[in-house]
Specification:
The complex is a heterodimer of chains A (162) and B (137). In chain A, 65% of the residues lie in helices and 0% in strands. Chain A is an all-alpha fold. Chain A has a domain of 112 residues. The longest helix of chain A has 22 residues. The termini of chain A are far apart. The N terminus of chain A is likely disordered. Chain B is mainly α and 137 residues long. Helices cover 67% and strands 0% of the residues of chain B. Chain B is built from four helices and no strands. The model of chain B has no long low-confidence stretch (mean pLDDT 94). Classes of the chains: A mainly alpha (162), B mainly alpha (137). Chains A and B meet through helix 3, helix 5 and helix 6 of A and helix 3 and helix 4 of B.
Chain lengths: 162, 137
């Protein structure tokens, strides 16, 4: 049995020495961060941040609709309150300020709100439900229940606006 | 996961039983149709759970109702009670499931919560919604 023959590298033109060298270089670079315990400069936003922004945007949309048509106020106010509860609890969970994130909020636009505010809010709830369903499916086990209830709540709002 | 599935199964079987009782007390035809559709949905969830559980528990033959059902008002109240209970039974499944199983659990929670809202509106109960459907109050 021959154990000392040339080692082929499947015709890529690289020698084994080159490959080993490349592997070592990659290992060294990857190892750079091991003893570097400085915090990351720009923290990635929590995956639930969009859900929080959406809750605040929806609460605001309800407020505007109720202000424009006071007759709707009794029907819309409890729904806005649900969204504010979600926003406050999400903010606490992910450790941000609900009002601070409101400033940065780019929530769902509630289209044609003037023509038919209830229909516009219903469409916005159904869109927001989809966001929450996706967030629930992606959530770790300890968040799945809360996010699932938020998704279900948005669906019940759409039903209440029928 | 089996403990959570067993709890959901118990709630679904209780719901099927409850709709059998309350259906005959409902007045309006739309409400009777609604109750029939709900019962069918609960049977579908029960069958799904039967396929998921290693050892399905034997269902009790009957249940003590939380209050007597004698008229349309108490029938609507029981429908709300049942759907709230089903929603609560599915929520713990979310944390012990993933992917398609979690999606099914969320759909079951959501459908029950939506039906609860529909029954509350028919019964003119206010508020019709809650911030966290499925969360035990």
């Amino acid at each position: 049995m021959v154990l000392t023959g040339p080692v082929g590298t499947s015709g890529t033109g690289h020698t084994r020495r080159q490959l080993l060298g490349a592997g070592l270089a990659a290992t060294t670079l990857a190892g750079c961060g091991v003893f570097d315990d400085k915090p990351a400069p720009a923290a990635t936003p929590d995956p639930l941040q969009p859900l929080l922004d959406e809750a605040l945007a929806l609460a605001g949309a309800y407020d505007r609709a109720a202000a424009a048509q006071p007759a709707l106020s009794a029907r819309l106010t409890p729904l806005a309150a649900d969204h504010r509860t979600h926003a406050a609890d999400l903010a606490k969970l992910i450790g941000v300020s609900a009002s601070a994130s409101a400033a940065a909020s780019a929530g769902p636009a509630v289209e044609n709100a003037a023509a038919d505010p209830v229909a516009a809010l219903r469409t916005a709830e159904l869109t927001a439900q989809k966001t929450a369903v996706a967030a629930c499916l992606a959530a770790p086990a300890d968040r799945a229940g809360m996010v699932g209830s938020i998704a279900a709540c948005r669906a019940t709002h759409a039903e209440a606006l029928r | 996961m089996n403990g959570q599935l067993a709890a959901a199964m118990a709630a679904e079987v209780a719901a099927i039983y409850a709709y059998g009782i309350l259906g005959v007390h409902l007045g309006a035809a739309t409400q009777v149709n609604e109750a029939r559709a709900a019962e069918t949905a609960h049977r579908g969830r029960r069958d799904y759970l039967l396929g998921k559980m290693d050892q399905p528990l034997a269902a009790p033959g009957g249940y003590d109702l939380p209050f007597p059902v004698t008229d349309p008002a108490s029938a609507l109240k029981l429908a709300v009670h049942v759907e709230d209970g089903v929603a609560q039974s599915w929520r713990p499944v979310l944390g012990v499931s993933q992917g398609a199983d979690r999606a099914t659990a969320l759909a079951a929670l959501t459908d029950a919560a939506v039906r609860a809202v529909r029954w509350r509106r028919m019964a003119a109960m206010s508020p019709a919604t809650m911030a966290y459907p499925g969360q035990a109050s």
